Amino acid sequence: MGNRISAARCRHSGAIAALLLTLPLAAHASDDLRACMELQGKAPSEQVLECYSRAAQRQLDERDAEKPPAPPAKTYTRSLAEQWTPTDERLHGYKQIYYLFYSHSSRPNDTPTSPNPSNQVPPSYALDKDEMKFQISVKGHMMGEDRTTLWFGYTQLSFWQFYDWEHSQPFRENNFEPELILSHRPQDWSPAPGWATAFINTGVVHHSNGQVLPRSRGWNRIYVQAGLERDFGDGRKLAMLPRLWKRLGSGGTDDDNPDIEHYLGHGDLELRYQHNDKTILTALLRIRSVQLDLALSSKLLTSMLHSTNLHLQYFNGYGESLIDYNQRHHTLGIGISMPFE
Predict the structure, then answer these.
(1) Does the structure show a pLDDT above 90 at 231?
(2) Taking a C-beta distance cutoff of 8 angstroms, is the pair 115, 259 a contact?
(3) What region does 183 belong to: left with phi over 0, alpha with psi -120 to 50, or beta?
(4) What is d(CA 178, CA 138) in angstroms, rounded to the nearest whole number?
(5) Fewer CB atoms inside 10 A, N or C side of the chain?
(6) What mean pLDDT do residues 269-276 have?
(7) Residues 6+ apart with CB under 8 A from 152
(8) Which residues contact 244 (CB under 8 A, 6 or more apart)?
(9) Is the pLDDT of residue 94 over 70?
(10) Under a CB-based contact definition with an 8 Å cutoff, are residues 55 and 39 in contact?
(11) Interatomic CA distance for residues 240 and 248, integer angstroms
(12) What is the sign of the dihedral through the CA atoms of 164, 167, 168 and 173?
């Protein structure tokens, strides 16, 4: 019986020795192994086994200690200033990119109107209250490498009557918004304690739905926008983006929407709260409307679609789209979105 136990322990000693030989050995590890091998046949098998065990554990501990530290978790949301800093990539995300699989309206605009008699849309059929809504938005760096740069931006907002099978699922409205943006990133300019001025942008933007009379809607503006940001630490940030604009070329018999400023005002304010890239709450405030967007990180979605968030949206007021600029309603939608860069 004793011989069988000793034989088993010898086999264990041999296995540990073989394990040590497969590891990259430091100089002292080779000495440990040599010392254990010299004990074989001279010392009790228990002592030999314990020697090999200590040598193996020491080698494993030192190998783990030499491993480089794990890289920090990747963050997908850059600071406001970084979002307007040129990189090697020519195209970047601009406004929030989202796709709402389901959006419910309290009052679809079946007969869009305007003070211009040429823009009165005659009744046709009742629109579905349920539809899909999505927005794509990109910007590209054109020139400038220092703190003042020139960019081109493009945003498209679409409303798709996807659930209206009776009328072949039409797109009821598309809004196109190309713009040219001159961006300046001030250095060490703080408007208030704890706040940083990330950028001051000046832009010219064309905003239209690409339709012909009587559904045509559109206007041109110049604007100034500031980007203010406060970092509370622990991954919590708050951004304020006030914007003022002036309409260009308003009035005249060819104005599709002469009273659009009455409903959309002369500016807007975007508030954006971010917590650890897992929660982003955005509020877009205008004189007669508010839109709330909540993006939540989802492990299930991320496993299927890289860096994709669950997205909830609520709108109340005028001007969700250009065709609805003077129509008040509220909508609630759910879908997915991409994080701000």
Answers:
(1) yes
(2) yes
(3) beta
(4) 10
(5) N
(6) 94
(7) 139, 140, 142, 178, 179, 180, 181
(8) 223, 224, 225, 266, 267
(9) yes
(10) no
(11) 26
(12) negative
Q: Report yes or no: 83 and 341 within 8 Å, Cβ to Cβ.
A: yes
Do residues 256 and 218 make contact, with C-beta atoms less than 8 angstroms apart?
yes
Task: List the Cα angle 9/14/17 in 5-degree steps.
Answer: 125
At the topology level, CATH places domain 80-338 in Outer membrane phospholipase (ompla); Chain C (2.40.230)
- The DSSP result for 250-315, as a single string, is --STT-S-TTHHHHHTTEEEEEEEEETTTEEEEEEEETTEEEEEEEEE-HHHHHHSTT-EEEEEEE
- By annotation, the residues acting in catalysis are 206, 208
Amino acid 5: pLDDT: 46
**Of residues 16 and 266, more confidently modeled:** 266
Span 104-162, pLDDT tens digits: 999 999 999 999 999 999 998 999 999 999 999 999 999 998 899 999 999 999 999 99
Whole-angstrom distance, CA of residue 125 vs CA of residue 240: 41
Tokens describing residue 142: 């054109």
pTM of the model: 0.78
**CA-to-CA distance for 159 and 302, rounded, in angstroms?**
26
Residue-wise pLDDT tens digits, 30-84: 676 677 777 766 777 777 677 767 777 776 777 766 666 655 544 546 789 999 9
Residue 59's SS3 state is: helix
Q: Which residues are bridge partners to 221 per DSSP? A: 205, 247
Rounded distance between C-alpha atoms, residue 273 and residue 24, angstroms: 50
Q: How far apart are CA 88 and CA 80, in angstroms?
A: 18
Burial of 217 (0-12, 13-18, 19+ CB in 10 A): buried
Six-digit token pair at 82? 């970084």
* Segments making up each domain of the chain, as ranges: 28-66, 80-338
For the chain, the residue count is 341
Token pair 């993006």 in the structure block, residue: 295
